[in-house]
Amino acid sequence: MKRISKKFPYTKAIKDALISWAQQFDPCVILDSFSEYNPDYPHGFTYEMVIGVEAHQELISNADSFLKLKNFHDSQADWMLGYLSYDLKNELEEVSSNNEDFHYMNHLHFFVPKVLILVRGNELEIQSIEKNPDDIWATIQSTPSQGVTKLDRIDLTPRIHHAEYIKGVKSLKHHIQMGDIYEANFCQEFYAENVSIDPISVYQKLVNTSPTPFSVYGRWNHHHLMSASPERYIQKTGNAIVSQPIKGTAKRGTTSEEDAQLKKDLYHSEKDRSENVMIVDLVRNDLSKTAAQQTVKVDELFGTYSFSNVHQMISTISSTVKEGVHFTEIIKHSYPMGSMTGAPKIMAMNLIEEFEHTKRGIYSGSVGYITPNGDFDFNVIIRSLQYNANTQYLSYMVGGAITDNSDPEGEYHECEIKAASIKQVLAGG
To answer: Residue of 192, 305, 349, 404 with fewest CB within 10 Å of its CB?
Structure first.
């Protein structure tokens, strides 16, 4: 079906009204790069914002998901927005997830939006299947800007208590020393039950606190995602593929001198470099499965980049897709992203299931867009809150890579650094 398209002038003044308008719809996905805060992010962004609302067509899957996605995209040849949950891995490898599930996310959920909004620079493009873009633009301009409302304090309970987390890190180190794995991403959940929140207000406060380049607000029926992710999973532009795993985190300093030293220490950290290079090797191997010969390369190793609350070590790996490969194969052969599993992937994922207590849901999965010609850009869902409005269950997960160099207390402290923005939001006010 042909879309009606029209471009309009975009200014930051319209942004709050745009978000307030979009969040009314189900489904709704808002992808925001906050490019003004992240101008140096390697490989940048095709769009500053991508927003899709209401489903013209929809794909929800828990089996044969990549084949269904291929057929769905080939039949629609249109824009799609959606998510890949962490448990999509169970369709790809001999692994399973038997931990308790509190969010009940599908393996995969994509939709062709009735209204698509693309923001680039000072231009906003509305693509609509049914309505006149002029009418949509007029409605957006007249929508009251909700902004950030006052939030009540919410106290979350750790699913894995401190002593048990320390024990888990030590056990994983034992597996590493025995040669079972090189690295595992061990996460813990913090949760609250019977809480009522306004998800869009929580999202806006979160991204105001931490304006990261792969932020997303997502709504799929009663499931809400509020994410301030700094990490790109994978991007396709034509035949060019880019993956940018993050491994290595340091807090920001209170003075410019301390901040510069912390960033320098991160760059030279033997432990963080060890984490990072193992995942770089894993990503290189994943991309080689769909790449033309001798095109997989590491564009940047151990790049250190600063965000509002943390410094991150980001490496960039690229490849050129070999002829005849469908875009779904690129995702399929690299999923789940190595930065959220460990290496080797299958054994690491099995150990993750043993030591974690809940299913991850969309956490450590991905949200993104797919264009009509099969280009895409997907993030890694970290630094994120999940909310089930039906059960009033709110949670976030946080974790890190465990290696032989890991100090258990240091790993726990790193989790606290990563969760700082979320804790600040949930503190109320």
So the answer is: 404
Which CATH number characterizes residue 208's domain?
3.60.120.10
8 A C-beta contact, residue 78 and residue 112:
yes
Provide the domain count of the chain: 1
Burial of 75 (0-12, 13-18, 19+ CB in 10 A): exposed
**Computed over its alpha carbons, how large is the radius of gyration of the chain?**
21
Half-sphere exposure of 168 (CA within 13 A, CB side): 25
Question: Catalytic residue among 114, 173, 236, 247, which?
Answer: 247
**247 is an active site residue:** yes
Asked whether residue 147 is assigned to any structural domain, the reply reads no
Domain-embedded: residue 270: yes
Cα–Cα distance measured from residue 52 to residue 75, given in angstroms and rounded to the nearest whole number? 19
Q: What is the pLDDT of residue 224?
A: 98
Q: Identify the bridge partners of residue 388 per DSSP, sorted by sequence position.
A: 223, 393
148 lies in some domain: no
- Positions of the chain with pLDDT lower than 70, given as ranges: 1, 147
User: Does the residue 202 lie in any domain?
Assistant: yes
pLDDT at 273: 96
Closest CA to 92 of 300, 279, 346, 285: 346
The confidence score (pLDDT) of residue 146 equals 74
Query: How far is it, in rounded angstroms, from Cα 295 to Cα 316?
Result: 14
Q: Please, what sign has the CA dihedral across residues 206, 231, 399, 365?
A: positive
Q: In this predicted structure, what is the pLDDT of residue 234?
A: 98
List the domain range (segments joined by +) for residue 95.
Answer: 4-142+155-426
d(CA 386, CA 310): 22
- The pLDDT value given to residue 147: 67
231 is catalytic: yes
pLDDT attached to residue 288? 98
